[in-house]
Automatic annotation (TrEMBL):
Top-level taxonomy: Bacteria, Bacillati, Actinomycetota, Actinomycetes, Propionibacteriales
Protein name per its UniProtKB record: Helix-turn-helix transcriptional regulator
Alphabetized InterPro entries for the sequence: CBASS_pafABC_assoc_protein, WYL_dom
Ranges where the WYL domain occurs: 60-123
């Protein structure tokens, strides 16, 4: 029986060495999927789309082991030129789009955090244990986390119910709230209003944007596309 760290290492090695490993129709990809599904739910490693695999990281085994045993971690984490120290509850380690993330609760910040594993410079396992969240969907939590906490707030009202909007809007783009009249409110934030406007332009029904930055970017995108259509 593999430990969580051994299984994750096997996943990485296979993804790096076999081009069809992320394809469930491939023989190796199918076998790899069985290994992933056999891991405990909060340690599951979602297979990425066919792409380059995540590079191994010296702290990954320790993070996985602490998550598996529900032990606190003391981390040294680098963001740009800043190195911070924090004590976290390591809820899960997630592989998403060829990059490893640690989903955790920071006791130092009293907040949920999604940390890039490649920015963890040191990790020390502490003797204290914690109780992980019940029914945690780690991949969903990570993706929803990515839609929040950026510079510009975004609110969009879509003229369609949430079950339709989920087909067009990934969880990493916005949180969805049901509104009366079969409508949906998208709540998010972005660092790049122009990029966000391009994502909204793919929604195939009417919507209204609340917030000056994204609305202005969407208007500019419309003017540019209208000018292209006239040439």
């Amino acid at each position: 029986m593999f430990s969580a760290a051994e299984a994750a290492g096997l996943v990485m090695a296979t993804l790096e060495g076999h081009p069809g490993a992320a394809d469930p129709a491939d023989v190796v990809g199918g076998a790899l999927g069985k290994i992933v599904r056999a891991l405990p739910e909060r340690l599951a490693v979602p297979l990425p789309e066919p792409a380059r695999a995540a590079a191994p990281h010296p702290q990954l085994d320790r993070l996985l082991a602490a998550s598996s045993s529900a032990r606190l971690l003391e981390l040294s984490y680098r963001s740009g030129d800043h190195l911070s120290q924090m004590v976290v509850e390591p809820w899960a380690v997630v592989l998403r789009h060829s990059r490893w993330y640690l989903l955790c609760w920071s006791r130092s910040r009293d907040a949920q955090r999604v940390l890039r594993v490649d920015r963890v410079e040191d990790a020390a396992t502490l003797p204290e244990t914690f109780t992980p969240p019940v029914g945690l969907d780690a991949l969903r939590a990570v993706e929803e986390h990515f839609s929040q906490g950026w510079r510009y707030a975004v609110e969009v009202v879509v003229e369609a119910p949430p079950e339709w909007v989920r087909r067009w809007v990934p969880r990493s783009l916005a949180l969805l709230e049901e509104l009366p009249g079969h409508r949906t409110r998208m709540v998010a934030s972005t660092e790049d209003p122009d990029w966000y406007a391009r994502q909204l332009a793919q929604i195939p029904v009417d919507f209204t944007v609340v917030g000056d930055e994204v609305r202005a970017a969407l208007a500019e995108l419309g003017r540019r596309l209208g000018g292209t259509a006239r040439t």
